[in-house]
User: Which sequence fits this backbone?
């Protein structure tokens, strides 16, 4: 443990490397209503981010917890899971992902100050420094923007940089929480914080991987068998990237994945599917795919192409296809509803719905005009605000 007190804000800094010290700290934090949290991590040549530092602020001190030294995180897991303490982040999506990959758990309650700012009409992606300046009139010096957080020992500059990220979060949360209540949007905000936690958890679920094919460029060009195979290939790549802990693009690039699906999604003689696919590959049907990829994964591609059930329905609702003039016109009407509703409530439009959500809603309305399905990614409070207006926009000229 080391201590420093020469920072501009004079908040003490404590570097923690001992599991017993962490356990003692967690006992104290459990008595608080909230703590400030941030992470420093590296992700250059791996699928999973490598946690280099976990910062905790309690309003009195900034604690830098060293995940390379501390081995027993059980007390911290109890703190996260109790739900008694609110974990305050700024832009928590990546932090939650790191929590899951490194610890295997996430906090039960969070307060995201960037999300709160968007509910208060300050913009959808306001930076921590900008928000601190705007609400607390404090200037944050960001002088270690690129750094190796896995090196040891960390420099004093790194420690100061990391510590200051949790110095102002509690004061920010208190101010923003008050403003959310005054604006009568606290329930919506809390629901969205819970949704962010669930989204992070879902990202690690194979069920969510089955929709990844929809975001690939040029996927819209594939026929139904091609999309079915592409869906299977995306799930396979997700598993492979995790298994090897390598970036997905290092396994197979998106364009190559689409090419594989395009060339191999052809039905052959029952019982000889895999052999036929292998023969096609040997004959050079994947000549446009990276040769190293073909060499490494030819058998996997052949097996996937042979085992797919090409008779099942495929969801093409949100494929990134160019929109027809008529669909562009209808989308703009939906976006206008979102914009006007957001303006009426003084929140950022991005909080309510994004383009992909509106396309899914439009597709549902076209498929079943009598009862359109609400996009599952959107919270029910958004349904109360938007559904009537969206349905009206689609039925009026």
Assistant:
């Amino acid at each position: 443990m080391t201590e420093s007190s020469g920072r501009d804000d004079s908040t003490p800094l404590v570097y923690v490397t001992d599991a017993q010290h962490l356990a003692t700290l967690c006992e104290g934090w459990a008595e608080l209503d909230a703590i400030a949290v941030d992470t420093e991590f590296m992700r250059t040549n791996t699928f999973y981010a490598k946690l280099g530092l976990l910062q905790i602020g309690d309003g009195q001190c900034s604690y830098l917890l060293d995940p390379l030294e501390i081995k027993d995180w059980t007390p911290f897991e109890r703190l996260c899971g109790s739900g008694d303490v609110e974990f305050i982040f700024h832009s928590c999506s990546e932090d939650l992902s790191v929590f899951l990959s490194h610890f295997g758990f996430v906090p039960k309650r969070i307060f995201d100050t960037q999300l709160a700012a968007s509910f208060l009409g300050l913009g959808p992606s306001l930076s921590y420094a900008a928000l601190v300046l705007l609400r607390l009139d404090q200037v944050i010096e960001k002088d270690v923007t690129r750094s190796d957080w896995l090196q040891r020992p960390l420099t004093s500059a790194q420690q100061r940089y990391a510590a200051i990220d949790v110095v102002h979060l509690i004061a920010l949360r208190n101010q923003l929480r008050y403003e959310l209540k005054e604006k009568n949007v606290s329930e919506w905000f809390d629901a969205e914080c819970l949704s962010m936690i669930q989204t992070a958890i879902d990202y690690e679920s194979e069920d969510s991987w089955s929709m990844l094919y929809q975001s690939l460029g040029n996927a819209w060009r594939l026929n139904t068998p091609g999309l079915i195979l592409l869906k299977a290939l995306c799930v396979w790549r997700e598993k492979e990237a995790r298994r090897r802990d390598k970036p997905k693009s290092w396994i197979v690039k998106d364009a190559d994945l689409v090419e594989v699906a395009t060339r191999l999604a052809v039905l052959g003689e029952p019982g000889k599917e895999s052999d036929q696919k292998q023969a096609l590959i040997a004959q050079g049907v994947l000549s446009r795919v990276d040769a190293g990829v073909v060499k490494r994964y030819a058998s996997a591609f052949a097996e996937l192409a042979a085992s797919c059930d090409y008779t099942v329905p495929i969801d093409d609702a949100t494929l990134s296809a160019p929109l027809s003039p008529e669909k562009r016109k209808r989308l703009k009407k939906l976006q206008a509803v979102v914009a006007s509703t957001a303006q009426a409530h003084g929140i950022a439009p991005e909080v309510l719905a994004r383009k992909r959500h509106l396309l899914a809603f439009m597709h549902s309305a076209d498929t079943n005009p009598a009862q359109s399905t609400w996009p599952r990614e959107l919270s029910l409070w958004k349904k109360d605000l938007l559904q009537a207006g969206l349905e009206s926009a689609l039925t009026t000229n």
About this structure: The beta strands are 2-4, 13-16, 34-42, 50-57, 62-65, 86-89, 110-112. The chain has three domains: 2-206, 212-307, 325-395. Residues 325-395 form a domain with the DNA polymerase; domain 1 fold (CATH 1.10.150). The chain has a mean pLDDT of 91.
